[in-house]
Automatic annotation (TrEMBL):
Stretch forming the signal peptide: 1-24
Record protein name field: Starch-binding associating with outer membrane
Family matches, as Pfam families: SusD-like_2
Origin: domain of life: Bacteria
Originating organism: Pedobacter hartonius
Keywords, ordered alphabetically: Signal
Amino acid sequence: MKIRYINILIAGALLLTAVSCKKALDESNVNPNASETAQTDYLLTAAIKATSDTYWGTTNNLGSSLLFVQHWAKIQYTDPDRYIFTNASFQELWSIDYAKGIINLNQIIKQADAASTPNYKGVALVLRSWLFTQLTDVYGDIPYSQAGNIDQYLLPKYDNQRDVYLGILTDLKTAQDALDPNGKAIAGDILYGNSIALWKKFANSLRLRIALRIADREPELARQTIAAIQTEGGSYISANSETAQLNYKASPNQNPISNLFDTRPDEYRVSKTIIDQLTALNDPRLAVYAQKSVATQLYVGAPNGLSANLPGKDQVSKIGSYFIAPTAPAVIISYAEVLFDRAEAAARGFTGEDPAALYNQAVEASLLQYGISTSDIAAYKATPAVQYDAANFKKSIGNQKWIALFGQGLEAFTEWRRLDYPVLAPAVAGALNRQIPVRFIYPGTEQSLNPDGYKAAVTHQGADALTTKLWFDVN
């Protein structure tokens, strides 16, 4: 976000020094035949594409969170897998979400209010809520209430994580009220094909997700949020076909993971942790998540965080071809995740639903998401280690959700911290004294460009370190 501010200031200074005539700057170089304001549908398309690429791409997914939760491992340049980062390592999520995401979405909201097109406003609020959730999930305290309004707040204050989550819930309720399937149509929606009915389900599914984020700290507020959705008669994502995901196309609009593997095919492999777990459960998703090693024709995972004696690239399993295909989707929130969330809400006593039934539906939905046969699904669900344990819902849900979220690094990282399952061992040669990171560190640019906000966040939250627990992470 601050990089954008500096670029704007530098560009302005250069223009001022270059103008030698007395004509006002705002009257110079204006095309009288061009619009001064980007079209709302174009802004929406751009915001979805840029933020999905960032969410699913290298810095925040492959190069950090997928390593932390031990879905993937590195067999080249292993510093990130050993938790060795600098204060420039986590800049992309911050800069893209704020500069290309939240600023564009704020503009859509302004244009929607001016043009009386509430469906655009509702969609923008849902997307903005998703971005703020990503940011606070990994950094903790962040600019929220003053974010993205550079005309008013060049150096926005940091809000504490509790207030951010509660603000997001308010925004999602506002979005839900604004979205009207019978209202003015929208365009530019490359996520749901302009279906407002599906955006309403997406909004409620995010409300459920955030309610569980705060459940260990604010159980009554979590219960009230879920009860409000039920009272409103709202529904959640209710089929795999309704999963919120960006479906990529062939090059040059391919999945960013596919783009990386085109040039760097041998940097990542599947983690030994998840391959061992899938093998122990005889999980049919193993053949989707991983490829057999070239050398042994067996599924062999790479240990996370090796500094020496790295396995040869042919000795360990490559990432499954499904995930490195150009058209592989960037999943934002799946039907399976929503079912797991509903199961947890029921297990916590927030609803009267049957947690075991919802858990079983969630496991099945995840398997169906990858085309697993009904006979294999039945056999898998009958496995004793897979069956729901009412005495420890966090273990059952946490373990299966971790498997279901394979590839969704940021979400898997947050849910692992929140549910404390599965139990993971730190990287073999990890640099954090036998600890696994529990947050991202702030971009170094924040220390120089917004020092007061940064210092206030550190004072409130704790050291700007990978091992500082965030507010939602109570155990």
